TrEMBL record:
Source organism of the structure: Triplophysa tibetana
UniProt KW Membrane keyword: no
PROSITE patterns: C_TYPE_LECTIN_1 (PS00615), C_TYPE_LECTIN_2 (PS50041), SUEL_LECTIN (PS50228)
One Pfam family here: Lectin_C
SUPFAM superfamilies registered for this protein in UniProt: C-type lectin-like (SSF56436)
Superkingdom to which the source organism belongs: Eukaryota
Protein name per the record: L-rhamnose-binding lectin CSL2
InterPro entries, sorted: C-type_lectin-like (IPR001304), C-type_lectin-like/link_sf (IPR016186), C-type_lectin_CS (IPR018378), CTDL_fold (IPR016187), Lectin_gal-bd_dom (IPR000922), Lectin_gal-bd_sf (IPR043159)
GO molecular function: carbohydrate binding
Domain SUEL-type lectin positions: 127-216
Coiled-coil intervals: none
Length: 465
């Protein structure tokens, strides 16, 4: 399983609060005419940005609307390309999925089941008592940097626990040696967080383990962690995983499926995975599966509540509502725009400057992730970037004169050109695969990406005379 900063964690949208009351359809039209669309929300970070943008207690429209078509989606937002149903799913109301003995079954979402959380880019984990922790490295081996067991505050791992189990503070003890003995030098390791493993630093209190680790002799993002926990409904499991880890687990291929089957290690146990089914779609057709419904929502009262409003109170949760209601609303504006026209590199530069700001300069991993999301709908195998080779100085520079301070070249690409007598070359990103950069003659006709934000580039500029 390849672990990257999630695309949804690196949102390339800017939110704009419109303090005018309109119906959902009127708000959608306004956003499309003046920005990109009604707001799409990809994750809890987006929710926090939305709250800061609105900064009042209004009800606001976002772009989520009910349709007639139910689709299966991953809670984490991954595309659903791999399925492993024991039997083909029916059209009943069992809209969540479990894994049992390596295959998937439909299940009602309100049943209490075990769960598996996925922890992505973070290498600092919190695992509550009685949960199982699985650490793994795609490459290299594990090295435990620190581990502490106990309790140092009353909030962490407090959900559903009686108050008297949370009162004790500052009773944590260093257990780095215990975890290191089990995990150091291994490709993967697992342990149950319990007094039996770590001894009991504060009897009668509910505790948790904090672990910091890394994968030694490995490239970045090669680490991953899984946390199992017993008995929650699907919605409770999703909320728990998002609060303490990344999300419920996605199963993206047969390798993932076998790994999770091995983690469960019980042919009779059913475990929640992050797959769910609903009929809600975003106005901009984004695949985001993030939902933040209030308890009991969506209720579909009277069969006519088909749009989504966010109530900007302390909880900032979502409610379905009649689309004919009148609310203020939030639009979003994309930082990057994929243009599905086939133009040469020079023509693409001209188009972006006339219609937006410029061809995109990719000066960081964050913007590379934005580009990766943008090229998803490209109709050409490569997509132009604002990168070109400046022969007089024998180096690659961005179209606005910035030096290349972040690179993502594909293996084997000839970066230094010994002969500049041929056709000038420019940089493009692969629209499939690992989305790496390649060098092509500027005359090739490709899709391209424009930026809409003049402040997007941060690299040092190079004056080119």
């Amino acid at each position: 399983m390849k672990t990257l900063c999630s695309l949804s964690e690196c949102s390339q949208r800017r939110y704009h609060y419109i303090n005018i009351n309109k119906t959902w359809t009127e708000a959608q039209r306004y956003c499309r005419e003046n920005y990109t669309d009604l707001a799409t929300v990809n994750n809890i970070n987006d929710m926090n940005e939305l709250k800061k943008t609105v900064n009042n207690n209004q009800k606001v429209w976002i772009g989520l609307k009910r349709t007639d078509v139910y689709k299966w989606k991953w809670s984490l937002g991954d595309p659903v390309k791999y399925l492993n149903w024991e039997t083909e799913p029916s059209n009943d109301t069992n809209n969540c999925a479990v894994m049992r003995n390596g295959t998937w079954l439909q299940q009602g979402c309100n049943v209490n089941m075990s769960l598996i959380c996925y922890n992505g880019a973070s290498k600092d984990l919190i695992i509550c008592q009685a949960q199982t922790l699985i650490l793994s490295c795609d490459e290299g081996t594990l090295q435990i940097l620190s581990a502490n067991y106990g309790r140092i505050d009353a909030q962490t791992c407090s959900t559903g626990r009686p108050h008297e189990q949370l009162l004790k503070e500052r009773c944590s003890q260093n257990r780095s040696l215990t975890v290191a003995t089990l995990c150091d030098g291994q490709k993967s390791c697992s342990l149950v967080v319990s007094d039996a493993v770590f001894t009991n630093p504060c009897p009668a209190y509910y505790k948790y383990l904090t672990v910091s680790y890394e994968c030694v002799a490995a490239p970045p993002n090669s680490s991953k962690a899984y946390i199992t926990d017993p008995y929650k409904t699907w919605r409770e499991a999703q909320s728990f995983c998002r609060q303490y880890h990344t999300d419920l687990i996605s199963v993206r291929n047969q390798t993932d499926n076998q790994l999770i089957h091995n983690i469960i290690n019980d042919t009779e146990t059913s475990v929640w995975i992050g797959l769910f089914r609903d009929s809600w779609e975003w106005s901009d057709n984004t695949d985001s599966a993030f939902r933040y419904w209030s308890s009991g929502e969506p209720g579909h009262f009277g069969g006519s509540e088909d749009c989504t409003e966010v109530r900007m109170n302390d909880q900032v949760q979502w409610y379905d509502a009649r689309c004919s209601n009148s609310n203020t609303f939030v639009c979003h504006e994309n930082e990057l725009v994929l243009i599905q026209k086939n133009l040469s590199w020079t023509e693409a530069v001209r188009y972006c400057r006339e219609n937006h700001v410029d061809l995109v300069s990719v000066d960081s991993e964050k913007i590379q992730l934005w580009v990766t999301a943008a090229v998803h709908e490209a109709s050409t195998a490569e997509v132009w970037l604002g990168l070109h080779y400046y022969c007089l100085m024998n180096l690659w520079i961005w179209v606005r004169g910035e030096v290349v301070c972040y690179q993502n070249w594909a293996p084997g690409v000839q970066i230094q050109l010994k002969d500049c007598s041929g056709e000038h070359r420019a940089g493009a990103v692969q629209s499939g695969g690992d989305h790496m950069w390649i060098s092509l003659p500027r005359s090739h006709k490709l899709n391209f990406i424009c930026t809409t934000n003049k402040e997007l580039c941060h690299c040092l500029s190079l004056s080119v005379m």
